[in-house]
Write a structure and sequence with these properties.
The complex is a heterotrimer of chains A (290), B (496) and C (344).
Chain A (H helix, E strand, L loop, with lengths): L5 H5 L5 H7 L1 H19 L35 H37 L1 H16 L2 H12 L3 H27 L3 H8 L4 H37 L11 H9 L7 H28 L1 H6 L1
Helix pairs in contact in A: 3-4, 3-11, 4-5, 4-7, 4-9, 4-11, 5-7, 6-7, 7-9, 9-10, 9-11, 10-11
Chain B lengths: L1 H24 L4 E6 L14 H7 L8 E3 L5 E3 L2 E6 L5 E6 L13 H12 L14 E8 L2 E6 L6 H4 L26 E7 L3 E6 L12 E6 L3 H9 L5 E2 L8 H5 L4 E16 L9 H10 L2 H9 L4 E2 L22 H10 L6 E7 L3 H15 L3 E7 L2 H10 L5 E6 L20 H11 L4 H17 L4 E13 L2 E2 L16 E2 L2
Helix pairs in contact in B: 7-9, 8-10, 12-13
Chain C lengths: L1 H28 L4 H6 L5 H11 L5 H13 L13 H36 L4 H15 L2 H25 L1 H9 L1 H10 L13 H35 L2 H8 L4 H38 L5 H10 L3 H29 L1 H6 L1
The chains are: A mainly alpha (290), B alpha+beta (496), C mainly alpha (344).
Chain lengths: 290, 496, 344
């Protein structure tokens, strides 16, 4: 955050895209992420096979020209299941990040602007949430509200709140003593308005990078919860549950576990790489350290 | 001194070589039996979990009567009994010389204590209904106990053979959950929570001693781990293997013997008979016409299980074949739905407890019902929620559950049972059955009862749960079927 | 420093208190009656009521909280509803699995991560660095439970199935024949695919049961840690005294080993502390994959069985563990970094 000039800080950098695309991590990440997003989007209109029917005769077929990724224990096409499952993973991760941002960022900004006891309360609240191993709490949340995609979103979203609150607060705290902020205050602008007009735009890049990382963590967390049977419920396919079902079929059809696992890895890897690349591009100081 | 030392050690060496040689020749006397679920505790008189009975029944605890491998009632701790002509008094002659594992003698006082404890107001017995109708238990003398009933109970001897009716010692009853003390041929040796329960042979057993010196129940819930444990020989047998999909692999391997046995588990699509639209018999009949039982058995259980068409095990002599009442006929089903006022079908929910038969079976049944326009939302629940929401509060449309208690057709006559079914005709048959002791007459009445619930299409009857026994081929004496929840090791031995 | 420490301790105590209220509150709203669950479908209503009284479930809310928390603080964690034994005893039994597992995973991940990070930093920007960091990126993305499933398949199931392939012939048969010594080795090794024989079965058998879970648990940790090690090293390498050492003509590798590594360890240790919470989450899921009777599986099982007192006490213990580790990390950090100490 070596930026000083408010005008330049706030204005979008026209070179960002070019620089981002020149960044190898970002480019690879972008391609992988787009592949997953496209697979999910395509599944709204077309999948190689339907995924609702049960066809016992065709079960546990190895990968072939007809079924690229083989079939599962109900005879369903695994490629089709993965495509539809992508929607679930993306939706859960996206909404969870949204919850984290919408609740966490205002909280962090508010704490930074007001300081004092409010700041202390928000930060201690964060400590309490952080003290709970996330997965354990998610298991408890789904035990209370019942398993399902919506409750998985809530469980994951809650743990995004303190993450974004911290990032927003730290970013804002670093900006408040800046000259141009002090100047704005001297000019009589209120704290709320300064936060809206000067702080938020200037921490946006931090939030975007964190958002990408939380998105990929969200995909992993969703997979973990569905693996434990607490995520999206059948017949809606989810990558984690496909793995849970595949686990007992390993002796008969290892491909049933292989492909959903690879899908998770590609999605997480894609968004992680994108986040890393973005950080390099948007945060020159960190880049120098690398 | 030195000389004698070395001689001693040489002879010790020789002896140990001899011993190990003979150990190779004689059959093994230890066994490790795998089980999928760990019992919460080991007191069969204070819990419903099947795993409790599997470890303790016949092995640790015994009742006045017992159920054998074929499901027949045979003498247990009572060597004989007399029934008064009015069927209201049972006089049990107890075996002599029976001792609890802690050395206490088993007498008629223990009979009185055990049964009264199970019946008491503060009793936590999971099958308290078994003792309904008993008015008193008297000690005639140390070796004779008399049970008096308020009405004849045709099934009393059978009921007393349940794991929930075993004999316990007043001195140890309170601690049986942790340290079970019974009269069986094995005694409790140790429990490493989460991994294994070990039993030792009871040298002071009153009857035929067990062939095994040591038995271990190893808890392996994961099907993949169970497969690997069997393949590698870490576990010698599973009374009920948790992964039906792995069975062909074992059937093809001569090292193993696979026995697909029967259980008392009627797996049914339980239906809330008071909740619209399921209160309409036409809707229930439409479902009955839609069910493809074999597809469920193949898809969920990899072919293991027998289709059923009523709530009764097909291997029971009193079973009647009702497969022709509602044959699979989608057009008929759609017509019935239309008659009921749902030409385009409707939406409903199905709550599925954790077992494979329910979770996988539920997905298949949902797909089948979609064919006639019934769109089911699948709601998986843990047992705790199932018991609260479905079983206690009747807050459900459909659910899948296996009713594993033997001879349980009477539940259809229970007021306020979760099926929410009421039929005067059925109740009348049950009332007659209760006071009938003659086997042939009982069979006729049971047949009538089966027909009534099938005609009323109370529930979707799907299949009889199979028991997949897999064991080392050198082991014999394990039960093939599961007429009652038990892994009876009393006759188990290695052949080499 | 003393003031800082005191206020930090007070904050920690407050966090623990709030956390205990949260844990207790969640238990209260958890649907499902533990008494009904224990007695099952055929139990009569009065049998369930009797059990509820026996378990103390009918006492008023504040009384139960007070009984629990005072007991908890004096080391009495209550008595499990399902097992009927003191929770402390269960926890001790389960720790005998979870602790060695976590330590093995921690050791394994450190043993992998430090050399990898060191190697990558010393080849900064070169092919070796890029390859290692690429692998680390993938490692971070691999779900540990998937890795566990694949490990079990490769090392436990496959060796036993391969014989059938050899018999079948063909391409797979040929491959299986070539690999047969490897399969034979793993057949002989007999790694369990899950379950735990208990320490009484001997330490070899017990450790064998923990190997695959530890590997599965360690991989993502190692990936994260190696990235941290590398960037910490690079940061230190950019500092003046290192430049000076380099300027004196000392070879780069020597500089890394002698000067940079020790200083880079501070952030690495900090990350290790922060990873504790992730490690707990990891053990929950990995113990479930391998059906290990550890603390994580105990909590998970207890939740489904509505053994509320176990969930309550064990969750509280884990939460306190995280809080204490965070506190220790902070304190260590303050000791290591005088600037921070003075500022505070």
């Amino acid at each position: 955050m070596a930026m000083l000039d408010p005008a330049r800080e706030a204005a979008p950098d026209p070179g960002v895209w070019r620089r981002a695309l020149a960044n190898r991590s970002f480019l690879i990440g972008l391609i992988l992420s787009i592949a997953i997003l496209l697979a999910g989007a395509l599944s709204f209109f077309w999948t190689p096979y339907g995924i609702s029917g049960v066809n016992v005769a065709a079960r546990l077929q190895a990968p072939s020209a007809a079924h690229w990724f083989g079939t599962d224990h109900f005879g369903r096409d695994i490629l089709s299941m993965i495509m539809v499952g992508a929607r679930n993973s993306i939706a859960v991760a996206l909404v969870a990040v949204g919850i984290g941002m919408l609740a966490g960022v205002p909280l962090g900004l508010w704490a930074a602007a007001r300081g004092g006891w409010l700041d202390a309360v928000v930060m201690r609240g964060n400590d309490v949430v952080f003290a709970f191993p996330a997965l354990l709490s998610a298991v408890m949340i789904t035990a209370v509200f019942g398993p399902g995609a919506v409750n998985a979103i809530i469980a994951i979203g809650i743990f995004n709140v303190p993450v974004f609150a911290r990032v927003a607060r730290a970013g804002a705290m670093a900006l408040w003593p800046r000259d141009y902020i002090l100047a704005a205050r001297a000019a009589g602008k209120g704290k709320g308005r300064i936060t809206r007009e000067h702080i938020l735009p200037n921490i946006m890049h931090l939030l975007i990078v964190q958002g990408t990382i939380q998105f990929s963590l969200g995909i992993l967390a969703e997979a973990g919860l569905s693996y434990l049977g607490l995520g999206a419920q059948p017949p809606a396919p989810s990558w984690g549950r496909m793995l849970a079902e595949a686990q007992t079929m390993m002796a008969l059809g290892p491909h049933t576990a292989l492909f959903p696992g690879l899908a998770i890895i590609i999605a997480v890897l894609g968004f992680n790489l994108m986040g890393d690349g973005l950080r390099d591009v948007l945060d020159p100081k960190l880049k120098a350290a690398r | 001194m030195r000389h004698s030392m070395s001689r001693l050690s040489i002879s010790a060496l020789f002896l140990s070589a001899l011993l190990s040689g003979s150990a190779l020749a004689a059959p093994r006397t230890d066994i490790i039996v795998g089980m999928a679920l760990e019992p919460p505790h080991l007191d069969p008189t204070a819990g419903a979990a099947a795993a409790i009975d599997e470890v303790t029944y016949a092995n640790l605890f015994e009742g006045l009567t017992r159920i054998n491998a074929k499901g027949e009632v045979v003498p247990g701790l009572a060597e004989s009994w007399e029934i008064s002509p009015d069927g209201l008094t049972y006089t049990f002659k107890l075996r002599a010389g029976v001792k609890f594992h802690d050395g206490a003698d088993f007498t008629a006082d223990d009979v009185k204590f055990s049964i009264e404890r199970a019946m008491a107001a503060d009793s936590t017995n999971a099958q308290k209904a078994l003792f309904d109708g008993i008015t008193s238990v008297e000690v005639v003398d140390a070796a004779t106990a008399k049970i008096t009933l308020s009405r004849p109970i045709g099934l009393l001897l059978y009921n007393l053979g349940w794991g929930d009716a075993v004999m316990v010692d007043p001195a140890s009853a309170a601690t049986n959950k942790e340290k079970p003390v019974g009269t069986g041929p094995f005694k409790f040796a140790g429990w490493a929570k989460g991994s294994a329960i070990t039993l030792d042979k009871n040298p002071a057993y009153w009857g035929t001693p067990a062939a095994l010196d040591k038995a271990e129940f190893r808890i392996i819930a994961d099907p993949a781990a169970a497969t690997a444990a069997m393949l590698s020989g870490d576990v010698h047998a599973f009374a009920n293997f948790p992964a039906p999909e792995a069975v062909p692999q074992f059937q093809a391997d001569p090292r193993f013997a696979v026995v697909i046995g029967q259980t008392e588990g009627e797996t049914i699509l339980s239906t809330n008979n008071k909740k619209p639209p399921f209160d309409n018999i036409k809707v229930r009949q439409a479902i009955a016409h839609t069910l493809d039982r074999q597809a469920v058995i193949d898809g969920a259980m990899f072919g293991q299980g027998t289709p059923i068409f009523t709530h009764f095990p097909p291997f029971n002599p009193a079973y009647v074949d009702l497969s022709g009442v509602y044959p699979r006929d989608l057009d008929k089903a759609k017509a019935l739905l239309a008659e009921a006022g749902f030409p385009d079908g409707f939406k409903a929910t199905i709550k599925l407890p954790p077992p494979t038969y329910a979770r996988r079976g539920g997905e298949i049944i949902a797909a089948q019902l979609r064919e006639i326009g019934i769109d089911l939302e699948i709601i998986p629940v843990e047992w705790a929620q199932w018991l609260e929401q479905v079983f206690t509060n009747k807050d459900y449309d459909l659910t899948i559950v296996s009713h594993t208690e033997p001879n349980d057709i009477g539940i259809y006559g229970r007021k306020d049972y979760y099926f929410q079914y009421a039929s005067e005709a059925f109740d009348a048959v049950m009332a007659k059955l209760d006071v009938t002791a003659d086997p042939a007459a009982r069979a006729t009445l049971l047949g009538e009862a089966q027909t009534i619930i099938t005609n009323d299409a109370v529930n979707g009857f799907i299949f009889q749960l199979a028991q997949t026994g897999i064991r080392d081929a050198k082991i014999e004496g394990m039960w093939a079927d599961a007429p009652i929840q038990a892994i009876d090791l009393t006759a188990v031995r290695w052949t080499e | 420093m003393a003031v800082w420490l005191a206020s930090r301790l007070a904050m920690t105590a407050a966090t623990v208190l709030v956390a205990s209220l949260v844990v207790f509150g969640v238990m209260e709203v958890l649907p499902g009656d533990p008494a009904r669950l224990m007695l099952g479908m055929n139990a009569t209503q009065d049998a369930v009521a009797a059990l509820r009284t026996q378990m103390g479930l009918d006492l008023p809310l504040p009384v139960r909280y007070w009984t629990w928390i005072t007991g908890f603080l004096t080391g009495d964690l209550g008595r499990s509803y399902t097992y009927g034994v003191p929770v402390a005893e269960l926890v001790a039994e389960r720790l005998a699995v979870s602790l060695p597992l976590a330590l093995m995973a921690l050791a394994l991940s450190t043993l992998i991560a430090l050399p990898v990070g060191l190697f990558a930093a010393s080849r900064h920007g070169k092919t070796g660095d890029v390859a290692m960091m690429g692998l680390a990126q993938i490692g971070v993305a691999v779900p540990n439970f998937w890795f566990a499933i694949i490990l079990v398949w490769l090392l436990v199931l496959l060796p036993f199935q391969a014989q059938a392939w050899v018999a079948q012939g063909g391409l797979w048969g040929a491959l299986a024949t070539v690999l047969s010594p490897v399969f034979a080795f793993f057949q002989w090794l007999k790694l369990p695919a899950g379950g735990f024989p208990g320490w009484e079965a001997g330490s070899v058998a017990a450790l064998k049961a923990l190997i695959l879970p530890a590997i599965a648990l360690a991989l993502p940790q190692a990936a994260i840690l190696s990235r941290v090690t590398r960037s910490a090293l690079l940061e230190v390498l950019g500092e003046d005294y290192i430049r000076t050492a380099r300027a004196k003509g000392l070879p780069r590798n020597l500089v890394i080993r002698r000067h940079a590594l020790r200083n880079a360890l501070i952030p690495v240790i900090t990350i290790l502390g922060l990873q504790f919470s992730f490690l707990i989450a990891g053990t929950i899921i990995i113990e479930n994959v391998f059906y290990l009777p550890g603390l994580g599986r105990l909590v998970f099982q207890a939740i489904t069985q509505r053994d509320l007192i176990v969930v309550q006490s064990v969750t509280m213990l884990l939460v306190m563990g995280v809080i204490v580790v965070n506190l220790l990390t902070d304190v260590l950090y303050a000791i290591a970094d005088p600037r921070l100490r003075r500022a505070a």
